[in-house]
Each structure stands twice: as C-alpha cells, then as structure tokens.
From TrEMBL:
GO annotation, cellular component aspect: Golgi apparatus
InterPro entries in alphabetical order: TANGO2 (IPR008551)
Any GO BP: Golgi organization
Protein known as: Transport and Golgi organization 2-like protein Ser/Thr-rich protein T10 in DGCR region
Top-level taxon: Eukaryota
Lineage, uppermost ranks: Eukaryota, Metazoa, Chordata, Craniata, Vertebrata
Length: 275
C-alpha cells in the first residue's frame, strides 16, 4: 500500500512556482530489505530507493532521473494476490532506465503486459524544456493509459482519485498547503511531511472496505490512515519532490531505520535537470 499526492503545473506563472509538487508514502512490511534513496552509483543520473527483496532486487516505488523522467507505482488493494506475478517495482526502474520510449508510449507497452502483474497503478512523467507530460495507467481500470491535465491529484491503492476517505482528507490538506504562496521551499517540505505523517484513522470507509475483501478488520482500519501504523507493517518512507520553473529539483526522503517507527533518517538531494 502507498499514497501519492501531486500538483502538476507545466507553465507556472512565477519563476518561484513549481511545475511539480509531489508528496508520497511508501507502506511496506517493516522487515522487507530495501535501500534508501540515492543515485545508482558513480555517474548515474537515476535517483531512487531500491527494493532488495530476493527476486525483486532493483525494483523501485518512486524515482527520478536527471533527464527529467519520473515514475511512481502503487499497489492496487486486493485480498488474494498472485504470489508468482512479476515484481511491480521493475515498472519504475525500467522506465527510468529506458532512453527510447516517452511516458505515454511506455505505458502503452506496460498496458499490453498488465496481466502479468498483480494490481498496480503507475505514474510516468517527463519534464522537458518544451513540454511537461504526466501520464497514468492502472491495470484494474481502463485498458488505455491517459495523459493528465494540469491539476491536483491523489493516488492510493485504488484507481486514480478514487474517493477513499483517507485520500479525500489528505488531498484536501495537500491542496491547502500547495496553494499557500507564502511558504519557503523548506517550509513547504515540512508542511508536506506533516500531511504524510498524519496517523488519524479515516474509518469506517465502506468504499475502501468493499475493495479490501480478504483483509482483517483491524488491518483495514489501520490502512484507513494516510500514515499507516501496525505491529509489522506501515509507512516506511516519506518522499517529497519539487521541480521549479528553472529545472531545479529538490528530492527529500525521510526513511525508517532498524524496522523501528520511532527512528528515522532524512536525506535531501538537489540537482538541475539536463533538458
């Protein structure tokens, strides 16, 4: 499970405004091995966290490269996933590596292979000198990917902007923060981290419960929060990505340490897109 809020504005009126503001949580089993966000080695232009789970090594949940490509994936809430399905994290990694397909063409290819995976949603984007494009595809929804219009969106573990209570509440808070023109970059990041770490339960939620057939009632309740907390599973990573009108990227990650929800590390990366 995960949640993503983002504002896409390809032509901000002010040079101090943002083409993209993205705030995301990665929810996962605390013990699943993974690598915190970093560039993929010497001279790499790809920045992301990486899955280290056996058989899924090298997949990611959210990443960006210096050429302006960004991708993020969330699982679709299903009670009985296929244990033999392909790893969804490779959908992100493969897009960031690919130098030929644009965001829409890549999702067209993915949609033709959607049956190989358990339920997922994927956002792919390109931030270029002449045009910014953000696309979406979910393999439990329409068979075709879509290009998104500028606006504010929320994505959790159903299709894009499905009105789960947690999504509506988080999106409302996100909208209020990103529309506050008085915030500095650091202030914006702190406000967004506050949204991502809201542990208030948004239950009962009949719409989420209906999709969560196969989950226990206590787990469904835990999953109703923007920031999920249970004994063994929950929000492990917060990520904020800002892209401004002059191609500057700020990538901030707050990640759990030692499988302990009271221990966290924060890292930040700044770079300029090579577009």
């Amino acid at each position: 499970m995960c949640i993503i809020f983002f504002k896409f504005d390809p032509r901000p009126v002010s040079k101090n405004a943002y083409r993209l503001i993205l705030a995301a949580n990665r929810d996962e089993v605390y013990s699943r091995p993974s690598k915190a966000a970093d560039f993929w080695g010497t001279n790499s232009d790809i920045l992301s966290g990486l899955d280290l789970e056996f058989g899924k090594e090298g997949g990611s949940w959210l990443g960006i490269n210096k050429r302006g490509k960004l991708a993020a994936v969330t699982n679709y809430m299903e009670g009985r996933p296929n244990p033999d399905a392909q790893g969804r994290g490779f959908l992100v990694s493969n897009y960031l590596i690919d130098k030929d397909l644009d965001s829409y063409a890549y999702l067209k290819k993915v949609s033709a292979e959607g049956q190989l995976y358990n339920g997922f949603n994927i956002i792919t984007a390109e931030f270029k000198a002449k045009q910014d494009i953000v696309c979406y595809y979910g393999n439990r929804g329409s068979p075709e990917p879509i290009r998104l219009n500028p606006g504010i969106y929320g994505l959790s573990n159903s299709l894009l902007d499905t009105p789960w209570k947690k999504l509506l509440k988080g999106k409302q808070h996100f909208t209020s923060v990103v529309n506050n023109q008085s915030l500095s970059s650091d202030g914006l990041v702190q406000e967004l981290l506050g949204i991502l770490n809201n542990e208030d339960l948004n239950s009962p939620d009949p719409l989420q419960e209906m999709q969560g057939d196969g989950f226990s009632k206590p787990m469904i309740q835990a999953l109703s929060a923007v920031c999920v907390r249970s004994s063994h599973y929950g929000t492990r990573t917060n990520t904020i990505i800002l892209i401004d009108a002059e191609d500057n990227v700020t990538f901030t990650e707050r990640t759990m340490l030692d499988e302990d929800p009271t221990k966290w590390s924060v890292s930040s990366f700044q770079f300029k897109l090579q577009v």
